[in-house]
Amino acid sequence: MKESKAVKIFLWVSFAMFMLYILSLTIPLYYMILNSFKTNGDYVDNRWGLPSVFTLQSFAKAFTMRAGETTLPMMLLNSVLLSVGATVISVTSISVTAYTLARFRFTGRNLLVVVAISAMAFPSLGGGAATYKLMVNLGLVNTWGILLMFGGPFGFSFLIMYAYFKGVSKTYAEAARLDGAGEFLIFFRIILPMTKAALGVIIFMGIVGSWNDYYTPYMYLPEMKTLATGLQAFSITASTTGAYTQMFAAMIIGTAPMVILFVCMHKTIINNTVTGGLKG
């Protein structure tokens, strides 16, 4: 009885701590949304209170803000190109590599799996200087050639796909081979669709990670600003011009696509299980 009561107390304390944590995350969001609908005068007079008049004026002005020669619509376009390009290259590389290591037997396969897992122990920024030097020598800085950097097949997403491919029964591939299907057809038409839950998760992770990535565009696209680097420049401008409401509006515009994406994909993310496959 005492143990049961102690468990309940522990759960309630944990619940309260998590609620406080969630509240700490919503306060900045509330502040940003609230002030984006104010005029600059309202913002100066009362930063935490409701605006005297709700207005979309800040959103209209946000689209005219500039960071150097780049406007907010161009930043949105650059972010879309970076996110989509990086995700397509990354997901393709990860899926093909994970499938190869999970389903085929060849010399050195186990070593590659160990390398894939061990690589996660080393910080990616450790090779930042060498990577930057390589990109400069190849003439890829300030070009979309930097998307090649996202072709690495290893990482947490690799482990997800590797586990899913290992869990799909081999009988599907064997039956397809008996019907004359080649390896590419088996992979793209039979096996890959069975891992759509895991595929959706790593696609979502890739898009969000690239969308919020500050380091890569800052280092390799200094003249082609994305939302991450552009909003940082807006914050500097706002501190000197007082255009805080426009900056908050720009933040909401930059956040909205990821919120919409999550709403569209939340079922795939939550139901992260393989459907239709048997345990192999």
From TrEMBL:
Residues that span the membrane, as ranges: 9-33, 75-99, 111-132, 144-165, 186-211, 243-264
GO cellular component terms, A-Z: plasma membrane
GO BP annotation list: transmembrane transport
Domain named ABC transmembrane type-1: residues: 76-265
UniProt entry keywords in alphabetical sequence: Cell membrane, Membrane, Transmembrane, Transmembrane helix, Transport
Protein name as catalogued: Carbohydrate ABC transporter permease
Membrane topology qualifier: Multi-pass membrane protein
Compartment(s) of residence: Cell membrane
Record bears the keyword Disulfide bond: no
